[in-house]
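Q: My labmate handed me this sequence with no annotations at all. I'd like to see what the chain might look like in three dimensions before we decide whether it's worth expressing. Could you predict it?
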Amino acid sequence: MSKALDLAEERARELVGRVELRPLGVVTAAASAEFARAAGETAPQLIDPDHPGFAVHPMYPVSLLRGAPGAEPAEFRPDGMYRDEVPGTDGLDVRLMAGGQDVRWLGRPRPGERLEVRHVLESVERKGKGAGFLLLTVAKTYGTERGPLIEVTERFIVR
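A: Here is what I predict for the chain of 159 residues:
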């Protein structure tokens, strides 16, 4: 069995249920419109902040992992992921893969609102034969002062 994978499992199990709140900054119409254009949207209400019916793109908040840009190189793993994005893996020689994502929209943030994400590791499962792999399930809730707006369940595969 892989010692790095065993250590990742041990670390992750210690983090199950621990709540982390991360401020993501103030939602801006310009940043959401830029995201929408990059995603190939053409609807004026998503790409033109001056449009009378402008709305934040529904996937824009989910795309945010951190607040203001300007992360230090030390915050990243060699593969480009944030060191703390996948619980239990920081500093370990493991491979990470996305294992699926479910998104439930309850509402949308409005430009000018402060956005935060509540991040909780829900489960750690060992799968496969031999060393196998880990399947980590993380729940994220994006919200503003108005309450929860987006609920996301993400799964990560750690090998």
